[in-house]
Amino acid sequence: MELRQLEYFVAVAEEQSFTRAAERVHISQSGVSAQIRRLERELGAELFDRSARAATLTVAGKAALEHARAALAAAGAVGQAVGEVTGLIRGRLTIGMVIGCTVTPLFDALAAFHAAHPGVELSLIEDNSDRLAEAVRDGTLDLALIGTTTATPDGLETLTIIEERLVAAVPPGHPLARGRAVTLRELCEHAIVCMPPGTGLRTLFDQACAAQGLRPVVSLAASAADAIAGLAVRGLGVAVLSESMAAHYRDRLTGLLIDDVAAPALLALVWRPSDSPAVREMLRCGRRAFFPADGPAAR
Fold first, then answer.
1. Where is each HTH lysR-type domain found (predicted)?
2. Are the CB atoms for 120 and 113 separated by under 8 Å?
3. Handedness of CA 111, 112, 118, 122 (dihedral sign)
4. Are residues 255 and 170 in the same domain?
5. Is 98 contained in some domain?
6. How many domains, the chain?
7. Whether 35 and 102 share a structural domain
8. CATH number for position 122
């Protein structure tokens, strides 16, 4: 008894036709008939009543059908299990991250994955968030860490890592430094230093300004928070950063919450819904690295 015989048997039973079954399994009708006859000889019973126009199951055929389906499913599961193990032995994983990323848990996750699966080749690509998300969608990247304004980017699964408000950061002596918060309109009276278009922070800032009909003057743009802070310290514009970014430079800059931008900036891992075994393993490493207090089974 061979798996292909069981496959043909199930196909004929479900199609109730040798002709349609042959089309389904992509061989000739005579080939299907011959294999079914061989299976019947091995089992010692006819599986189909061939006297009617449609191929209908005999009592023996009905008894065999569910077992044949189960055998095919088990064979498929064996193939999937071996494929997953093989993929984690000698596969490839291509990961994207936002330019200037200093989120060290991502590096910890990569190190943990590499230690557990040294045969998987890792590639790391930097780009802006929009292009990274699109690369994940089209399959160029397997997984990416991006900045985003929504927890559910179109067509992608998401694990939110950080969720923070926008902050304006200014050096001591700047007119805005006297307050503890600032409105978007007040902020837009000054030159802005921000991340470039295509990044999550810039998209959130631009959307908030557009919603109020404001046209900010972004005098300088830089991809790295260090560069934005350095420009702001030198008086070249008000830095627009996330809360944790601004806090990193509090020895040189005063952070002011932008009161009327309630929507948060998000940092998230994104991947396609039909992920590979390597992606699932990388996500496990990512959850442990980003959320160690939750334990390995959390999230």
1. 1-58
2. yes
3. negative
4. yes
5. yes
6. 3
7. no
8. 3.40.190.10
What tokens were used for 216?
A: 């900010």
Question: Is residue 125 within 8 Å of 152, Cβ to Cβ?
Answer: no
- Are 99 and 82 within one domain? no
Token output for 8: 């043909």
User: E strands, 141-264, where?
Assistant: 143-148, 157-164, 166-170, 181-182, 192-194, 218-221, 238-242, 254-258
Question: How far is it, in rounded angstroms, from Cα 213 to Cα 78?
Answer: 59
* Separation between Cα atoms, residue 295 and residue 299, nearest integer Å: 9
- Give the pTM: 0.63
Closest CA to 184 of 238, 241, 260: 260
Adjacency order of strands within the sheet including 254-258: 181-182, 254-258, 166-170, 238-242, 192-194, 218-221
> What is the pLDDT tens value at each position of the chain, 299 positions in all?
788 888 888 898 898 988 898 898 888 989 889 989 998 899 898 989 888 788 889 999 899 899 988 888 887 776 666 555 555 556 789 999 988 777 889 999 999 999 988 888 899 999 989 999 999 999 999 999 998 888 888 889 999 998 999 999 999 999 999 888 999 999 999 999 999 998 889 999 999 999 999 999 999 999 889 999 999 999 999 999 999 889 999 999 999 999 999 999 899 999 998 767 888 889 999 999 999 876 443 33
Sign for the CA dihedral angle at 170, 172, 173, 177 comes to positive
Domain co-membership, 205 together with 251:
yes
Which amino acid does the sequence have at 56? Answer: T
Distance CA 242, CA 10 (A): 59
Owning domain of residue 205: 166-263
